[in-house]
Amino acid sequence: MIGIYFSGTGNSRYILDVFLRAYYNGKKGRCELYAIEEQGAAEAVRKNQEIVFSYPVQFSNVPKIVRDFIAGHPALWRQKKIFVIATMGLFSGDGAGMLGRMLRKYGAEITGGLHVKMPDSIADEKMLKRTMAQNQELVARAAAKAKRAAKALRARKPPRDGLGWMCRFAGLFGQRLWFSQKVKHYSDRLKIDTAACVGCGTCTALCPMDNLRLVQGKAEARGRCTMCYRCIQNCPKQALTLLGKRVVQQGTIEHYL
After folding, report:
1. Which residues contact 82 (CB under 8 A, 6 or more apart)?
2. pLDDT value at position 25?
3. Strands 240-241 and 191-192
4. How many CB atoms neighbour CB 249 within 10 A?
5. pLDDT for the residue numbered 183
6. Residues linked to residue 54 through DSSP beta bridges, in sequence order
7. H or E segment at 192?
8. Distance, CA of 28 to chain centre
9. How far apart are CA 24 and CA 150, in angstroms?
10. 150-157 long-range contacts, Cβ below 8 Å, gap at least 24?
11. 104 near 132, Cβ under 8 Å?
């Protein structure tokens, strides 16, 4: 079993790592994790029958970059057994179900689902912001839940968070009906404060979409943002925003461990 993930601030990768380590009882050398944007990810999926796929929901939906990765390799998922982990700031309804249905369309078998609440990644909005202590407690609870789910999967009694019809209705009426357009296409709304930008290149190095580049010593966006918030969370000058007008709180998973 291997882990495939997409992660903006590290939440989804961290939980996937915790899950796989618990599944293999802490045995070293058994936890193989691949980010979908790195070379070798598709080949790793092809060579393995059992997969854990971890990703962050966006407005109770699947990020565009994840959808493109799955649809871009249609034959890759046939007859694969996939457990889905969905990380979220609050509630998604059917986060695991959204990705699960997409994978089933390409012939995969969904073996279970897990929903995990993690620190909010939307750095430029006040909603869901917590103190350091609250975020640390949230991460600790999330890790404990992931470990329990891994042991349950090993015992062939996996959780099925987000996979039922009631969950689907909750996700649809709770968010997707109102916000589906926000993740239908890549966003061109990433804003850069050129006065604050010092051209350090942090954002260009982190962007999974190659959406950012330096032009005359300033960051410039190309209109293909997948809203992962890596650049916004890591900019040392807080020069980037997307949904809000200013950065309220930065924080990647490393801050809470």
Report:
1. 50, 51, 52, 53, 100, 103, 108, 109, 110, 111
2. 86
3. antiparallel
4. 19
5. 86
6. 5, 85
7. strand 191-192
8. 25
9. 9
10. 150/18, 150/19, 150/20, 150/21, 150/22, 150/23, 151/22, 151/23, 152/112, 153/23, 153/83, 153/111, 153/112, 154/23
11. no
Helices (H), 60-201: 64-71, 95-105, 132-154, 165-171, 177-179
Q: CA 191, CA 199: separation in Å to the nearest integer? A: 15
Interval 101-119: pLDDT, tens: 999 999 999 999 999 999 9
Residue 28 CA: distances (Å) to CA of 17, 20, 21, 124 = 12, 11, 8, 38
Q: Specify burial of residue 191 (Cβ count, 10 A radius: 0-12, 13-18, 19+).
A: middle
pLDDT > 70 in the chain, percent:
98
What's the start-to-end Cα distance of the chain, in Å? 26
User: Residue 44 is encoded by which pair of tokens?
Assistant: 């790793």
Alpha-carbon torsion, ordered 8, 199, 223, 67, to 10 deg: -20
Of 34, 55, 110, 114, which is closest to residue 79 (Cα–Cα)? 110
Residue 4 has pLDDT above 80, yes or no: yes
- Residue 76 identity: L
What secondary structure does DSSP assign to 228-241, as a single string?
--HHHHH-TT--EE
What is the residue-averaged pLDDT of the chain? 94
Residue 206 and residue 248: Cα distance in Å, rounded?
A: 20
Give the model confidence (pLDDT) of 191-208 as tens digits: 999 999 999 999 999 999
